[in-house]
Input
Amino acid sequence: MASTVHEPPQIDPNRQPDQGHIGNRGWKNLVPAGGNLHAALDYSPPPSSTAIWVVLFAITMMFAAFTSALIVRKGSSLDWQTFRLPSILYLNTFLLLASSATLEIARRRIAAFMGGLRSSSESPSRWLYVTLFLGLLFVAGQYIAWTQLRAQGMYLATNPSSSFFYVLTATHALHVLGGLGGLIHVIRKLGQSALRQNTLVATAHYWHFMGALWVYLIVLLWMKL
Output
């Protein structure tokens, strides 16, 4: 019986690897040839979404502990000294709430940009820069509030009431600085066309939480100090 023997396939040593199938070495390799790059960027693994809720829960528990300590300390203190809150705190509240609004505008512009609904000539990061600027103004305003309080003779160790004021506002300001770092990261990734949707959503959740937390703190300080 005659049989057919097939020659083994020849390998071309000069053949370049297929750019769409060279393994998972970054989001660029996941985009098929002729595919929609913006649509591919919408995909992101869920851990970043889960992590942000863990972070927000931890921050909530920390400020809940501060609140409990403030209430107990004031109730058991005979030397609790009340003082008028620096008026600039109310302006700072407006700035932080306004920054949440501009961040939402930025999210809509970026979503439209990624969906190809707007011209690529329109910078989608414009409102992110506005949000960043308002956040920096808020931190600067907090520093001015501390200087105004020191001008009244109220330092960190002057009285338990002033101690709680400095600790609560400074801790919140540090977390706001963390949010500003997140915004800078988003702007940089957007400039590199490597921004993932979950990164933007997680950053927005964190920033909005900072605004809501500050409203809670300003009411708490106004009622208890």
